[in-house]
Amino acid sequence: MTADAPGPDPYPASAGDRLSDAQRSLRAQLLATEHWSLLASRSTTQSEVLTRIAIFLTLVSAGLVTLGVLGNATEFRGWFGVAALGVLFLLVVLGVITQQRVINVGLEDLAYVLAMNRLRGAYLDLDPGLERYFLLSPHDDQPGSARTYYPFAVRDATQVFASSMMLIMLVEAALVGLFIGSLTFAVSGVVGWAILIGVVGVVASFGMGFIGGFRGYRDVWRVHRPLRPTPTAAPGPDAAG
Questions:
Q1: Domain spans of the chain?
Q2: What are the helix (H) ranges across 20-163?
Q3: I need a surface site. Which of 22, 55, 119, 229 has the fewest CB within 10 A?
C-alpha cells in the first residue's frame, strides 16, 4: 500500500445499518442537530474573519491618510521618516496576523464543508432516495468539497484568485514592499535601491503567503480519510477502443 492510499476504515459499517423506524428517527434528529451546529459554527467563523478583514483595511486606510497629513505638516522632513516607518511597521504586523487568520479560517471552512458532506452521506444511508434532492455533495473527499463549494461547474483558479485570502495577501505584500523600500531609502538614500528591494519584498511576501496557504490545504488532504469517496465514473463502451 502506498503512502497516499487510504488506510482501513476507522468507522466500519455494522449491523446497526439495519435500524428500526424509531432508531432511524433518532439518528436523523442527531444528524440534523450536528448539521445545524456546523452551520452555526461556519457562519460565526466567516462573520469573525470578515470583521477582522474590515478592521485591517480600515487601519491601512487610516494609516496612509495619517502619513499624508503628517507629511504635509512636516514637509516630509525631520521626524516624519521615523513616524512613517513606525506606522508602516505596525500595518505590516497587523497584516501578517490578519493574513494568517484568513488562511486558518479557509482551512476551518474546508473542515466544515467536509463534515457537512459526511452528514449528507449519513442521510443517504438512512434514505438513499434523498440523493436526487441534494444539490451539494454527500461525498467527503476533494471532488466532493469542490462540488459543494461550486456545484454548477468545475472549480478553477478564478475561485482562488477572487478570494478574500488573495486580497489580503496582495495588500500585505504591498505594505511589506512599502516598508522595506522606505527603510532602504532611509538607510542608503538611493531611490533605485529602495524601489528594487521594495519590489523584491512584495514578491517574497506574496510568495510566502501563497506557499503557506497551499501547504495547509495540502496537509488537510494528507491527513483526511473520507468515509464516502466520490465514485469514479465507469468507462463508456467506446473507452476500450
A1: 22-223
A2: 21-74, 80-126, 142-149, 157-161
A3: 22
Helix, strand, coil percentages, rounded to 5, for the chain: 75, 0, 25
Predicted local distance difference test score (pLDDT) of residue 17: 60
pLDDT along the chain (241 residues), means of 10: 47 57 88 95 95 96 92 86 93 96 95 96 92 93 92 80 91 96 91 94 95 93 93 52 40
**Global model pTM greater than 0.90:** no
Q: Cα separations (Å) of 102 from 51, 107, 148, 165, 181?
A: 11, 9, 20, 6, 26
Q: Which are the contacts of 56, defined by CB distance < 8 A and separation ≥ 6? A: 94, 95, 98, 168, 171
| Cα–Cα distance, 27 to 58 (Å, whole number) | 47
Burial class (CB in 10 A: 0-12, 13-18, 19+), 158: exposed
Q: What is the pLDDT of residue 19?
A: 74
**Helices 191-223 and 164-188, axial angle in degrees (round to 10):** 150
Within 8 A by CB and 6+ apart from 234, the residues are none
CA distance 203 to 185: 19
Predicted pLDDT of residue 62: 94
Residues in the chain: 241
The secondary structure of residue 152, as a DSSP letter, is: T
Predicted pLDDT at 38: 95
